[in-house]
Amino acid sequence: MSLENMKDLQLEEKHPQPETKEVNGILMTKMISDNWEKIWNFQAKPDDLLIATYAKAGTTWTQEIVDMIQNDGDLQKCQRANTFDRHPFIEWALPPPLNSGLDLANNMPSPRTLKTHLPVQMLPPSFWKENSKIIYVARNAKDCLVSYYHFSRMNKMLPDPGTWEEYVETFKAGKVLWGSWYDHVKGWWEAKDQHRILYLFYEDMKEDLKREIEKILKFLEKDIPEEVLNKIIYHTSFDVMKQNPMANYTTLPTSIMDHSISPFMRKGMPGDWKNYFTVAQNEEFDKDYQKKMAGSTMTFRTEI
Question: Which residues, 6+ apart, have CB-to-CB distance to 170 below 8 Å?
């Protein structure tokens, strides 16, 4: 890590810890655990579309792409409301008077597009029963870790990540909200052949967005003209989305997300982990990774 980065990290004040509590061995906020029965009994519908990811794996990006597809590239419609109001985050519970994801979802007319970070074994069973379509996006562990670390520094709703060194260990141990990255990507990967799940990789989207959007179109059984496709590619590029207040979370108060610490949309580039991992950390991480991913058919790219 560069000296400059180290200085930045030392200047910050720690933020107050939100309460956390495990649900079935997975770390969650206490607000989620208190509402767990309601979340587990959430009623999905056959025409729901669920966007599922591990935290910081390209969720908002995928939401914007899907929203633009559903609205035939109509920008005004896509800027009708914040991402979090357009696509309810089903397990996210906030203190009143703020809306919980469940309330938003239950009050939303069909067809709904919903969002979750839940590991596959904790997805409300009605999604399987109703055979709802699910798009899952996976991102390589090292970039996910870096992005989640910075997100935890600026988002007061998440536990304080501590120092970079501490966080690397916390992440490896799966002691972060929504649990282990390793179990998450593998669990959803194993489920993809039994259910209507389109499994995408963040790095593939970065490499060739058009190709990946075409996979989404096929999955959603939707056709759009070439000019609409090009418009979607342009408006869901990182630089354009970073300027879009309906997608970049800047409308939230700094008491929730402090973008001066780290912007919600930070870099969005595969390979940024190299600016943070020391050689020793990287070697240790790789060793641990081999152990945890042993026997899996998944392959991730840590740069493109």
Answer: 161, 162, 176
